Amino acid sequence: MIHHDTIVALATPSGAGAIAVIRLSGKDAVAIADACFKSVKNLKKLSLQKTHTIHLGHIIDGNKTIDEVLVSVFKNPNSYTGEDVVEVSCHGSNYIQQEIIQLFLRKGCRMATAGEFTLRAFLNGKLDLSQAEAVADLISSDNEASHQIAMQQMRGGFSSEIAKLREELLNFASLIELELDFAEEDVEFADRTQFKELVERISFVLKRLIDSFAVGNVIKNGIPVAIVGEPNVGKSTLLNALLNEERAIVSHIAGTTRDTIEDEISIGGIGFRFIDTAGIRETKDVVESIGIKKTFEKIDQAQVVVFLADSLNFKVDVFINSFKIEIEKIKNKYPLKPLLIVANKVDKLNENQIKSIKSEIPQIHFLSAKKGIGVDELKDKLLSFVNTGALRNNDTIVTNSRHYDSLLKALDEIEKVKHGLQSGLSGDLLAIDIRQALYHFGEITGEITNDDLLGNIFANFCIGK
Amino acid sequence: MIHHDTIVALATPSGAGAIAVIRLSGKDAVAIADACFKSVKNLKKLSLQKTHTIHLGHIIDGNKTIDEVLVSVFKNPNSYTGEDVVEVSCHGSNYIQQEIIQLFLRKGCRMATAGEFTLRAFLNGKLDLSQAEAVADLISSDNEASHQIAMQQMRGGFSSEIAKLREELLNFASLIELELDFAEEDVEFADRTQFKELVERISFVLKRLIDSFAVGNVIKNGIPVAIVGEPNVGKSTLLNALLNEERAIVSHIAGTTRDTIEDEISIGGIGFRFIDTAGIRETKDVVESIGIKKTFEKIDQAQVVVFLADSLNFKVDVFINSFKIEIEKIKNKYPLKPLLIVANKVDKLNENQIKSIKSEIPQIHFLSAKKGIGVDELKDKLLSFVNTGALRNNDTIVTNSRHYDSLLKALDEIEKVKHGLQSGLSGDLLAIDIRQALYHFGEITGEITNDDLLGNIFANFCIGK
Fold it and tell me: Which ranges of the sequence are coiled-coil (chains A, B) (predicted)?
């Protein structure tokens, strides 16, 4: 798995922009760059330059000048990958990017595979495995909470907690294994009382980390919210109203895709993902038959349901009753799913009308998406469904399902150790369970690893990272 | 127009990628970066660092760490803009990009307008105006020819040619204006024979540059080609076959938009732009009535027309005659437009059939888009319509319509000077025409400029450049 060749990839997003960065890493990175680079000042070769310096010049292919560029040089081990790294900052045309990459390929580079730069950083000991995984999370983080967790994990918060427990457990494991060497003398090097305490503590921490996964998962992937309701009650307008603040920030930068934003918004730093409301918009049958398959499918996928109605409809008495029946249907089918009953276009009603509807449907929340009335209150209600306690307390939160899986397995083994200790299990059998627990700890940080596992993890990275 | 504030913008394409680069320029760039940056090694401030050095650390907002970044420092005048410049290379998530930019804005930066970095480079004398314009061309160049011309222009090839003529003309202007001061003494400081020679030479160069615009325009914008023909004759398959080589290169990098590539391909380094073939695909009437408005509209826009037919149809005798009539219709309407008659699916015919069709329509080109037969020959034919002589001779080529406009006006004035010299026009009147010519030369390189002009030019840049 250790690579000795030199890899190259575009590190910035593809497409045209002011500049693009092409990254080389490996033992020949500087030599290959030197073969294609001519300094503007005609100074010494890049190989003779200090690490962390920048040089203005041209990328040349024989007599042809491809671009005027800035070249950054990083000498091993002081680079992201721990190898020699060269970053070429060129003009951001697709054509130039391609030409420079093709040139480096001809000069002996190989196209990097997804995540290969970070894989090398891991293999060279610059990051542990959970930190490496956090890099991918960091890049895909799109709100404050997921960013904060990825940042914490990348800086080693999670690994160091795991590593500390692992070390303590390893100490005891060694002592117990030592006992086995002196089996005939019946000595106990490992204090069983202290060991029980440690196992209890590890079990407690593991359970906390495992519990945090539910929150972590929500934070990483966003909370799925279904907005259901008849056509033209204002679902899109509500989404736009919720989006308002976010979009203003985003619009500073041209080219940000709006479609994606319309589906995912951040409230109080937590991502809320709105499920395929376009699909719901098409169905005409919500009122007559809330039980239709499509709507229930949306509700199935959602963690929170916003049931939106048009206030004007409440002026018709018969509507209130059919609406109440629909609410009951949803509640009966999903007794545990938070349901927000929302009436849009509140500005079309007078005080008395509002009061009389509230007496019929007490939990109803009135708003006007168009005029921005009651929208902030809806945001607060959505946020109230998230347990942000752990986030506020700056606790370690598990967001990665691979880690979650290893933690579950480690807990399983630790519980076996606990019962073994209680039932006076012999040291040799105890040692096996401890080693198994240690194995699963090691999986998380990467002390225990194999090519398949690494292949799977880094395949999810983008090329260039 | 001179700015004293510090600007910030994302310099890399928007979207998620491995890394993103945020660029600051202005007198407070380093101080603002220092206020948000904490070195990992806890070394001295960025303001105390040397120019062209890179520093690993964290972007911090109070107690909150936004990202681990590399910061590059460029001290004025040794930077792109000629001002102090800081480039922050952060993890490429949209969220992180936004957070860092927002932080810099709060610390006193202003969001850069389109092309403002390059505008500052121009105002600080790092580039002349035609070089600055070449930066935008370079970024949007998507084939070898347009890239080569933009590169030449950015490196000053075009400006230096103009500047040299301008200087010589300026010398004569000064001499002639000097004569005016001694008007009563009737002296001639400016040698009229030499001056006539110079004016002839300038006129010759201007005409060559003006003529080059036709080629330049084709190279910059690509050659519009209409592929017309019945549905299912294989227009898309042909386009894919033409694309083949390009796409293999492009596919190394994930996320490159395919739609755009399908419409523009590069043959022998020249861009060929295929006009809305989807639209033609929809019309069912090509064979019955080639005269329909839509098809002629496509042909109107094209510089070359590929008229594609299905070889199988030629097995029907009546088709050959109707096809010949259609060819005549196009030729009559567009006698000067190159028309390529192409028959796809040649593999479905035998030698005799091919021979007999050729005897009816001698100029027909047979190919099989699916099997790749005859496709390279079609590329050669397309390429033969481009006058690449100037390109091969490495002559200066004008691609910018603003330059073209100024060159036309300059030529107009130079012709006036020429006639003035021939008809013995008095020095004071001659001087006026010379000054006008000089004015138009100056417009190109930016000696003569105004805010509106600069505003127009740089508004076409992307933000961050």
Answer: none
- Residue labelled with tokens 């091919």: B354
Best mutation target among B24, B60, B79, B93 (most A Cβ atoms within 10 Å) is B93
B252 has binding-site annotation: yes
For residue B9, is pLDDT > 60? yes
Cα separation, A343 vs A235, in Å, equals 11
Report the Cα–Cα distance between both ends of chain A, in Å, rounded: 17
Contact A13 B13 (CB under 8 A): yes
Residues 6+ apart with CB under 8 A from B100: B22, B36, B59, B66, B67, B69, B88, B90
pLDDT band at residue B294 using 50, 70 and 90 as cut-offs: low
CB atoms within 10 A of CB A110: 15
Query: Which is the CATH superfamily of the domain at A7-127?
Result: Probable tRNA modification gtpase trme; domain 1 (3.30.1360.120)
| Contact with chain B for residue A20, Cβ under 8 A | yes
Instruction: Indicate the CATH number of B230-374 among 3.30.1330.60, 3.40.640.10, 1.25.10.10, 3.40.50.300.
Output: 3.40.50.300
Alpha-carbon gap, residue B93 to B344, rounded angstroms:
47
Q: Which residue from A92, A138, A257 is facing B139, i.e. has the nearest CB?
A: A92
Extended strands (E) in A247-318: 264-267, 270-274, 304-310
* Alpha-helix residue ranges (DSSP H) falling in A79-191: 94-106, 116-123, 129-140, 144-154, 157-181
Neighbours of B152 (CB within 10 A): 17
CA distance B107 to B99: 12
For residue B219, the surrounding DSSP H or E stretch is helix B192-221
**How close is the nearest chain A Cα to the Cα of B77, in Å?**
13
Nearest C-alpha of chain A: how many angstroms from B442? Answer: 25
CATH superfamily, domain B132-217+396-458, is tRNA modification GTPase MnmE domain 2 (1.20.120.430)
The shortest C-alpha distance from B166 to chain A (Å) reads: 27
ipTM of the complex: 0.77
> What is the nearest CA distance from B63 to chain A, expressed in angstroms?
12
What residue ranges do the domains of chain A occupy?
7-127, 132-217+396-458, 230-374
What sign does the CA torsion over B101, B107, B112, B118 have? Answer: negative
Chain A hits for B87, CB-CB cut-off 8 Å, are 89
The residue among B328 and B290 whose pLDDT is bigger is: B328
The alpha carbon of residue A149 and the mean position of all alpha carbons in its chain are separated, in whole angstroms, by 8
Residue of B nearest to A71 (CA): B52
Residue that has been written with the tokens 């592929």 in this structure: B227
Question: Which residues lie closer than 8 Å to B59 by C-beta, 6 or more apart?
Answer: B36, B37, B65, B66, B67, B69, B88, B90, B100, B103
Two tokens at A303? 């963690």
Mean pLDDT of B299-306: 85
Please answer whether residues A461 and A115 qualify as being in contact, where contact means their C-beta atoms are separated by less than 8 angstroms. yes
Find out whether B247 and B430 touch, Cβ atoms under 8 Å: no
Hey, what are B104's tokens?
A: 């810099």
- According to DSSP, residue A373 is labeled B
On the question of pLDDT at B292 being above 70, the answer is: no
Portion of chain B with pLDDT greater than 70, in percent: 89
**Most confident of the following: A37-41, A272-276, B108-112:** B108-112
| Position B313, amino acid | N
Most confident of A97-111, A172-186, B316-330: A97-111
Distance between CA A405 and CA A130 in Å, rounded? 13
A9 sits in which H/E element: strand A7-10
**B302: number of Cβ within 10 Å:** 22
Window 231-290 of B, Cβ < 8 Å to A: 249-250, 252-257
Quote the DSSP letter at residue A69: E
Q: Is A157 on the interface with B (CB under 8 A)?
A: no
